[in-house]
Fold each of these.
Amino acid sequence: MTDSLRYSDTVMDHYRNPRNVGEIAGSPAVAQVGDPATGDVLKISLKIVDGVVVQALFKSFGCTAAIASGSIATTLVAGKTIEEAGRLTNQEVVRALGGLPESKIQCSVLAQQAIQEALRRHRAALAMTPEVARCR
């Protein structure tokens, strides 16, 4: 893109018509990244069954690129194994969006970070034994 503030049609579509908006109640695979005081915030919720992301939802407080990145990231990880979802990079988010202005790449990084943190929390919840859970 030649104009640093110009967005692709895909970005604008995901901004105007975001996919998979919401939260998954009761899921341990939830992560919020970003800083609400200074910029964009992205929250990702995953429902994981038998090692597969069967549902991915997001909420975002932020700019066009943040909303579009959260939206497309949920479509990219849904149906993937947790290993596949964990390998999603911000560059893949940018490619799927048809590019982002250089000043907005951080929004794709938030999507990657939120997914990785949600997966980390899912793994941590699986690792807890009943005895450990009762002690907390």
Amino acid sequence: MTYIDTLVALADPTRRAMFEALRERPRTVGELAGRVRVRQPTASQHLRVLRHAALVTHSRQGTRRYYQASREGLDALRRYVESLWGDVLSAYAASDPAPVARRKGKPRKARARKPVPRRRPASRS
């Protein structure tokens, strides 16, 4: 499981809607299928992709499987995005030809604005 699996899984709007529903509370395949308006076999296929990306886990209770959101897949994606920040900020700083020099001395005071008189609407008599 990598961040790519997570991106691929969440790229599909149906899977994304299912994952968001599972963030609220655990649900069965039937509940999810009804919520996103797909048949149960289709919902099961989407859940298989979400499980492979470690975005959901399931537990059995009698004859039903309850699916719930898992942080593991999102943690992989988060680590990837955080690893980009250092490179992005360095590239941004390097692309700036002349950094803005700060003025020395007293900071400028904001000027007070004069109030603008409001016009009253003409009365219609």
Amino acid sequence: MTHVVCEPCFDCKYTDCVVVCPVECFYEGERILYIHPDECIDCEACVPECPVEAIFLEDNVPEEWKDFTALNAEMATQCPSSLKRKSRWPGRKSELAGGGSSFRRYVLAAGLARRDAALPRRKQRG
């Protein structure tokens, strides 16, 4: 079992979770962190440290973010390890414009998605 970083981390990348990880299984993408599923020991130390509540146990990933499980596995092998605490990224938006469409555009532009329809969709808050 592993933990998965999901959409709330996009354009945020607080790294409080990284510094508490005893096995250094976090990897830093251009605009989001990833957890390597083969390195995560399921200690849950990172979950309460995430201020945007972006980390879920694999079995508990919300339905609209299920594609992040595969995305974490794929991208963790392609990104550098993230070992240091950093300030949150400047320009972090509290809500993603267009219901997460900026994330979908990023994934498509980076060639990480098969099709737009396969990408997770964030529910609009009303």
